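INFO  loader      accepted 1 record
INFO  loader      residues=176
INFO  predictor   begin
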Amino acid sequence: MKKIAFYLIPCFLYLLISSCATSEYSDFEKTESGLMYKFHTKGGDTAHANYGQVVRLKIAKRLGDSTLETSQMVNPDGLEQLLQKGAFNGAVEEGITMMAIGDSATFLISTDSINKYYPARDSTNNFKPNSYLAFDVKLMNIQTEEEVMWAREQSRKAFIQERKGKESTELSPYRC
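INFO  predictor   done
INFO  writer      dumping tokens
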């Protein structure tokens, strides 16, 4: 009986310790800089976003099971932003450079890094340490700054032409 206990106790301890090691983030991969990520869908494109390009993203920021912010509230088509290097290693911008058009992924950012590099005005509003903010990102488009400026100029010219066409009709009630 003592021999069985001698073998069973270490096996039980091993199982107990190894079950504690699996976390809710065990299905995430990790970059050298410490960014944790998980891709959900991969688009058909192979060109990845680079710093200095303009990306259109649909993005949601979550803490636990609560959504804190979402681009859907501002623009259902996503937000355009100039992709620049993040304030710290392992920032969400690094994850975006791993993406191609059509990809969707979740990036986990340490609340310790957020508190350090983006502290709240009132320190009591900082995030609880030793946890993660989840950024759910879908990359909709990648363009150069020149392409974005050209498209905006074309939209501006089209708007001016449309307004010129309506001008006489809209002003006619005010003419003598």
